[in-house]
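Appendix C. Worked example: T-complex protein 1 subunit delta
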Amino acid sequence: MVLCPQIQGGNGDVTITNDGATILKQMQVLHPAARMLVELSKAQDIEAGDGTTTVVVIAGSLLNAAAKLLERGIHPTTVSESFELASRKAVEILSGMSTPLALNDRESLLKSATTSLNSKVVSQYSNLLAPISVDAVLKVINPSVVDNVDLRDIRIVKKLGGTVEDTELVEGLVLQQKISHLAGGISQVEKAKIGLLQFCISPPKTDMENQVIVSDYAQMDRVLREERQYILEICKKIKKAGCNVLLIQKSILRDAVNDLALHFLSKMKILVVRDIERDEIEFICKSIGCKPIASLDHFNPDMLASAELVEEVSVGTSKVVKITGVSNPGNTVSVLVRGSNKLVLEEADRSLHDALCVIRCLVKKRALIAGGGAPEIEVALRLAEYSQTLTSMDAYCVRAFAEALEIIPYTLAENAGLNPIATVTELRNRHAQGEVTAGINVRKGTVTNILEENVLQPLLVSTSAVQLASETVRSILKIDDIVNTR
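Step 2, the predicted output written as structure tokens:
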């Protein structure tokens, strides 16, 4: 069972999540040092995408250790420098106990994504969301040359209705806009030729200060005939280019497309999707290989994209447009996330984002490490041994740093309903006997070889958490006073 807080905003909106970054982002934190912890969580979210709770818990434990050291008369600068030394040594230890990973090892990638999802509210769907996150990342990168992933190439579309089990990965494009239907309009096109318009198919308007006065019916008829002819010529040019699916960008100056234009396009069997947002243009072009067309003179066949199928699909209480079978696909994918209510939908989105970030971590630093508190307790033991080789105050401070890291297995045991003191003691003994991969098995309620339980996480998540927490604590130690300004 995953325990989560319920956060209620000032406008009455409720959020149920155990994602550390989300909780801290929505809390109204006033104390400057506490704000630094919020920024720490954001930094971990940007760097690794997962471990946002871990990094704050470690920072809190290090601050507690630092406070005890200061009470004993050790200078803040000495504590800060010792913590930096311990942080560097901890990263070395973590790197030494990691296992290299190849991106074609799909099974290990799935284990890492599943480990990330197992602590979430939607953990029961990890067997579905983990493969989706792995496939999504692998489809948007070139594993042989790329050492990072741009998650903007993975578009997540959230739709109410159904359950999280209905979530799917779409190799193509999913648009939230609906098809513009008229009488006899079409909702599906095979062998589509897709054009993306950035100009309007509607009659021009006068300047803001001007107006046109029509004094009799003959002039009115002439205006209507001219308008009809103007729009018809545009539609004929579009049809002549071979286009049968038209995506029209939203316009703020006038109607992007009017009813008369929709009527002509419907008669020509051209499917129309309007109100495409300006910030969607780049992703659409990259996904289906089309080029945005800014004027009618540039509407040529070579500006169009090809796809096997464009169709409108009912999703819950609304509809989406799917474009699949793209001839020249870019390195992008879309994920259609489903949920029975808004709270579940938002949490599924956050959980999927964390799983995607875990796979991104493995692309950036291709190494895995055991989970379940195993790395933290191993680092604590090894740092304690290392502190015995040091002299003066450094030895005392490094040992305090090592003991502070035991907060992670302690908290993990406590959250699992185990006796934290007994569990951490057993875990420490197992690691002292050389069992580097011994960790807390939450399902069995005991300490086991955590690798056999497939609890794995990226090395970058652990190293980033230790480094960022250490940096933040060192920054706080350097603060002498707080001055309020207006």
